[in-house]
Design goal:
Order of helices and strands: EHEEHHEHEEEEEHEEEHEEEHEHE
Distance between the termini: 62 Å
Largest sheet: 8 strands, mixed
Number of strands: 17
Function: May play a role in the trafficking of a subset of G-protein coupled receptors.
GO biological process, one term: intracellular protein localization
Number of helices: 8
Family: Belongs to the ODR-4 family.
Protein name: Protein odr-4 homolog
Subcellular location: Membrane
Structural class: alpha+beta
């Protein structure tokens, strides 16, 4: 028996509108949520045209000319804009009858390429019982016939399986949201044996260790520890018959274990380091979960992944920004201080779900609006952009010779300690005073 996809009704109209465009084919992504019982599709997003296609107003006429790299890059960008619980769960293609025979092979190839690209960036591993089927939706532009199949992305030899595609009104109008703020203070040493200090690689390694702490953390939902298999809404009244968006929020606290149990044996390692990176601040995290008797473990898993993704994505964006502004060959950054982008949320019409994005300090609202149109084919009003981490509450103190007494004392003690351990000049990441509303990224090198 194949999987069933419950699809937001508005998506049917969106796909129908796309099919009327006079093009041989149009590709795009399906966004939603998987669960063991059923899958939900709450957004469909067409692949944005490349610059040359915009200028010349042309599009390729054969499926063999599909730009796989462009589509996977789009999927990576879109995945950054999805809060916890949402993922790219498939690919669609709208094609003329002449191209219908080629469409399924093209879809299969794209599904595996997109999944490979997204998996490469993740710092978490899928659970054993996790759904690994991804949807391949084929629509004929002439007859409007819809054919949905799935492929198991964990099996490279997977063959197509039939799936049901069912439209439903107000599908995500009463989904549940889990909110939390996680304080972050991650110190990442850079080994002296690591030439050119590959910041991106070292940062990812450091975040990998931190992500394991998040995975092992205890999550309090509305002040309570709940069993994994308990229903998330147990003891609460479920909203019925209300098609207006109505979010039920759960406040979550994350308790990170400070040490391993007494049975866990650990050893200390001394390594010679020539620099360090310090990530300090707080992250605003959010996950959404369907309202069909969701389990606590589903909700917690979605939130864990959002915590890990949001910090990892911001670091990745910072490195991309540095490469654009400073050049790809600049690997050494001397005593620099950077602010990671702020998180923001934008509502989806007719849904309680909000999409996410990130804003660098100098970015205007117009740039954010343009990005939503390009990446998610969604118009956004400036007043609908909700910045989760208010920049006006931030006190940024870059490390200078005039560092305040407390910070200078910490810096001096750390310097003396490291110089006793190492017979060489070293760099320390000094603590930077940042309120719990934005991140800082510190990198210091001798």
């Amino acid at each position: 028996m194949g999987r069933t996809y419950f699809v937001e009704e508005a998506i049917g109209q969106y796909l129908s509108d796309l099919s009327t465009k006079l093009k041989p084919y149009i590709t795009g992504l399906l966004i939603g949520q998987c669960s063991l019982q059923r899958d939900y599709v709450i957004r469909a997003v067409r692949t944005p045209p490349k610059e040359e296609q915009k200028e010349d107003n042309i599009s390729p006429s054969k499926l063999a000319s599909i730009d796989e790299e462009w589509i996977t890059t789009h999927a990576s960008q879109v995945s950054r804009m999805l809060p916890g619980g949402l993922l790219v769960l498939g690919v669609f293609i709208i094609a003329t009858p002449e191209l219908s025979k080629e469409s399924q092979n093209a879809l299969r190839k794209l599904i595996f390429s997109v999944e490979k690209s997204l998996t490469k960036r993740r710092l978490w591993k899928p659970a054993e019982e996790e759904v690994s089927d991804r949807a391949a939706l084929q629509i004929c532009s002439a007859t409007k016939k819809v054919v949905c199949r799935t492929y198991d992305v964990q099996d490279p030899k997977s063959s197509a399986k039939p799936a049901d595609w069912k439209y439903q009104s107000a599908l995500s109008a009463s989904w549940l949201a889990l909110d939390c703020t996680v304080n972050v203070n991650i110190h990442i040493p850079l080994l002296a044996t690591s030439p050119n200090h590959d910041l991106e690689k070292n940062t990812k390694n450091g975040l990998n260790r931190w992500s394991k702490q998040i995975e092992d953390s205890v999550f309090l939902i509305n002040g309570q520890v709940k069993d994994d298999d308990t229903e998330l809404l147990e003891g609460q009244k479920k909203l019925r018959g209300n098609i207006q968006p109505n979010t039920q929020f759960s406040d979550v606290k994350v308790l990170t274990q400070l040490s391993q149990g007494s049975s866990h044996r650990s050893t200390a390692t001394v390594q010679v380091c020539s620099a360090s990176i310090n990530l300090k601040g707080a992250v605003k995290c959010r996950a959404y979960i369907h309202n069909n008797k969701p389990k606590v473990k589903e909700a917690v898993q979605a939130l864990k992944r959002d915590i890990i993704n949001t910090l990892s994505d911001r670091c990745e964006m910072l490195f991309e920004d540095l490469i654009i502004n400073e050049g790809p060959h600049k690997k050494n950054f001397e005593r620099e201080y950077h602010v990671l982008p702020q998180r923001l949320f934008v509502p989806v019409a007719g849904s309680t779900v909000m999409l996410s994005d990130y804003k660098f300090g100098d970015e205007a609202a117009e740039e954010i609006q343009e990005r939503f149109v390009e990446m998610l084919d969604q118009s956004v009003q400036a007043e609908d952009i909700h910045i989760a981490e208010e920049i006006n509450t931030v006190n940024i103190c870059p490390v200078t010779d005039n560092t305040d007494d407390t910070q200078q004392t910490q810096l001096t003690k750390a310097t003396l300690l490291l110089k006793l351990q190492q017979n060489m000049g070293v760099v320390i990441a000094a603590a930077v005073a940042v309120f719990a509303s934005i991140f800082s990224f510190n990198y210091f090198s001798d």
